[in-house]
Amino acid sequence: MQKQTNNSKKHVNKIATCKYRYCFRLKRKYRFLLYGSSLILIAFSIFHISLWLISHYQTIKLSKQLQNQATVAENENSLDSSFINPPEDKNDSYWNDINLNFLQVDFSSLLKENQDTVAWIEVLGTNINYPVVQTDNNDYYLTHSFDNSKNEAGWIFADYRNHFDTLNDNSIIYGHGRWDGTMFGSLKQVLEEDWFLNRQNHIIRLSTLQANMIFQIFSVYTIYKESYYMIPNFSSQLSYQDFLNTIQKRSKFSFATTVNTNDKILTLSTCQDNEGNRIVVHAKLIRKGIPNY
Fold first, then answer.
1. Element housing 267 (H / E)
2. pLDDT tier, 93 (very low <50, low <70, confident <90, very high otherwise)
């Protein structure tokens, strides 16, 4: 009986030892898997941070280079300068904003660098001061820079449906909302009350190969991704007026300006953020002139 008891104890101890060894090996296996997964995650993060930093410095460097080489300057007068759709109300902010100088841009050097160059845009009160490109789709410049190099910062680009020679009812320009403030990253400043309270900020200056233009902002907001505000032209004045009413009501701030179907609209839009939202700015054309060069 004693012998059987001893054998039973040995058997139990053997099973316990096997379980311990199995559990140890299993724990070690999971530990290795955990360590391995962590290392892969760290390597993945470092890789993407590196890509972001590279794109950041390349974008900053290229932007400064283009601003220097393009000879962007203010110009008080343009040939055949005209006021666009002036309101009857002489107290309308329109009458102050039309006195701003145009941007005058020498596009010759920009076109040598990139034949897709169609405009230069400056949004007052932000860091936005870039050449605008346009191709036959709205995808390429999401991942390519002005010099056509691969870059996750992309570039500022016009909707492929835009016609800057005649202007659409609604001309649309896109850019990534980079948190470093490049591209349309500083567009988020238009949602701040300090920006809004400074009346001088409510202006977008746009120069194309055909014209120098001043636009007056009348609506700023964030919205979940949609295509409604990206409609370039309207089949009737009624549908256009409905559109104008809708985008004006969306605005975070109430701008002291009127908009109607005789106006030409410029729309700026960031890409969507992690929550699917976009920052959108709408402005109306108030003054236009032929470049003096």
1. strand 265-270
2. confident
Asked if residue 157 lies in contact with residue 133, where contact means CB atoms within 8 angstroms, the answer is: yes
Of 130, 134, 110, 133, the closest CA to residue 120 belongs to 130
Strands 157-158 and 117-123: unpaired
How far apart are the C-alpha atoms of 240 and 233, rounded to whole Å? 8
Contact 253, 185 (CB under 8 A): no
Residue 137 has pLDDT above 50, yes or no: yes
**pLDDT tens, residue by residue, 162-199:** 999 999 999 999 999 988 889 999 999 999 999 999 99
DSSP state of 272: P
Write the single-letter amino acid at 289.
G
- pTM for the model: 0.81
Give me the active site residues, please. 271
Class of domain 72-290: mainly beta
Q: Which ranges constitute the DSSP H helices of 70-156?
A: 94-97, 108-113
Q: In what helix (H) or strand (E) does residue 246 lie, and over which residues does it extend?
A: helix 237-249
Q: Is the pLDDT of residue 39 over 50?
A: no
**d(C-alpha 247, C-alpha 234), whole Å:** 14
- The residue written with tokens 């941007």 in the block is 103
